[in-house]
Amino acid sequence: MKCIINGQLVLPTDVVSGMAVIFDEKIEKIVPAEGLDLSQYEVIDAEGKWVAPGLVDIHIHGYMGADTCDGDPDGIRKMSEGLAKNGVTSFCPTTMTVSVEEIEKAFNDAREVKAEGAKYGAKVVGINCEGPFINASKKGAQAEEHIKRPDAEFIKKHADIIKVYTIAPEVDGGLECIADVFADGRVVSSMGHTNATFDEANAGINAGVRHTTHLFNAQTALMHRNPGVVGAALSDENVSVELICDTFHVNPGLYKMVSKLKGDKLCLITDCMRAGGMPDGEYSLGGQPVFKTGIQCLLADGTIAGSVLDLNKGVKNFYEHSGVSLATAFAAASLNPAKAIGEDANIGSLEEGKCADIIIVDTDFNVIKTIIGGIEK
Ligand SMILES: [Zn+2]
After folding, report:
1. Lowest pLDDT segment from 139-143, 293-297, 318-322
2. What is the distance between the alpha carbons of residues 2 and 336, in angstroms, rounded to a whole number?
3. Phi/psi at 334 (nearest 5 deg)?
4. Separation of 167 CA from ligand 1 center, angstroms?
5. Model confidence at 143, in pLDDT bands (50, 70, 90)?
6. Are 182 and 207 in contact (CB under 8 A)?
7. How far away, in angstroms, is 300 Cα from ligand 1 center?
8. Does 335 score more than 90 pLDDT?
9. pTM for this one?
10. Is 280 known to be catalytic?
11. How many helices (H) and strands (E) does the chain have?
């Protein structure tokens, strides 16, 4: 049994000191450190740093040169290894709008790596299937030739591995697909890459949409007479939203407003592509060339093509620009996304009985130590 002492514990709604976390594979107990007989434990001294829940990235395409759709499980393993260094302990490898064969190969690769648990680093919890059921007019960096009519059977067929998929509710067959997947109950429908009006977005929500793919990006904007997808997502309390907090995809001046409106329905994601953790230069995403310069990744025509954000830096950006508490900032990248994909009974917070996915972080949000399932990575 192991024990972390001298940390500032980041709990779901509060940061506390003077408490010890006792864990093996799972968190056994969180108790006052005073009077604890430490001789029975392998002791980890957090030296006053933050002891936070492992981060959960539910939307990430690639990292360290690898991509979910590479057609090789080693790509996902490489992501797993690299992400653990940023404090990510669970993630959803995210597919792009590529051919059905390539998408299904990525599913199989994810199944293989998921079965390996935390062998390489961050655990695969399931796939985020971003496309092909999207609207070509809001395709962003997704390849138009692979866009398909929404097909609930495809999602249900792979419901063992898909946690969430993106759909444009307004396209032909969209609402039927959403309703069918909702009735099935295993996969979350997320509206995204959508040109829906406010009414069409609300129709999607009524049919079963419960999540929003990278809020503000690749969807209809909030205008006062045409509130769009953004207006519907911000208004409905059943719908969670993803936010890319790299300060580039969304003006950081909006972080506070989104947090106030969405509360625990706000999920920080990276939408990171393979150039994450790599030097500036030319890379590819969904078969298209992408140019990375600093925090920006663009297609040749200037279209934004994913990010190169590390999730711990996303938490830092969100914390510094939103004015929320530290507990709220960490929950947005751990408990909230875990809830959005229905995994919060196992992961997402420092609570007794959950997986011992724990990170030690300094006040600049640098990750000092990542523990996954009780094992240091
Ligand atoms: Zn994406």
Report:
1. 139-143
2. 27
3. -140, -75
4. 12
5. confident
6. yes
7. 18
8. yes
9. 0.97
10. no
11. 10, 24
Closest CA to 371 of 12, 21, 16, 11: 21
> What pLDDT, in 10s, does the model give residues 286-295?
888 999 999 9
The predicted-structure confidence for 158-173, as pLDDT tens digits, reads as follows: 999 999 999 999 999 9
Taking residues 51-73, report their average pLDDT.
Answer: 97
Joined together, the tokens standing for residue 301 give 């025509």
CA of 59 to the centre of ligand 1 (A): 6
Tell me which amino acid residue 122 is.
Answer: A
Domain extent listing, the chain: 2-51+362-376, 54-348
Q: How many CB atoms lie under 10 A from the CB of residue 48?
A: 11
CB 344 within 8 A of CB 355: no
Domains 2-51+362-376 and 54-348 fall in the same CATH topology: no
C-beta separation of 371 from 358 below 8 A: yes
- CA 41–ligand 1 middle distance (angstroms): 42
162 alpha carbon – ligand 1 mean position (Å): 15
Q: How far is the CA of 201 from the centre of ligand 1 (A)?
A: 19
**Angular region, 47: left φ>0, alpha ψ -120 to 50, beta rest:** left
The pLDDT of residue 333? 98
Domain spanning 2-51+362-376: which CATH class is it, in words?
Answer: mainly beta
Q: What is the 3-state secondary structure (H, E, C) of 306-365?
A: CECCCHHHHHHHHHHHHCCCHHHHHHCCCHHHHHHCCCCCCCCCCCCCCECCEEEECCCC
How far is ligand 1, taken at its centre, from the CA of residue 47, in Å?
37
Q: Which CATH number fits domain 54-348: 3.40.120.10, 3.20.20.140, 1.20.1090.10, 3.90.1720.10?
A: 3.20.20.140
Instruction: Provide the edge-to-edge strand list for the sheet that holds 19-23.
Output: 27-32, 19-23, 2-5, 42-45
Residues in the chain: 377
Q: Which of 67, 70, 246, 271 is catalytic?
A: 271
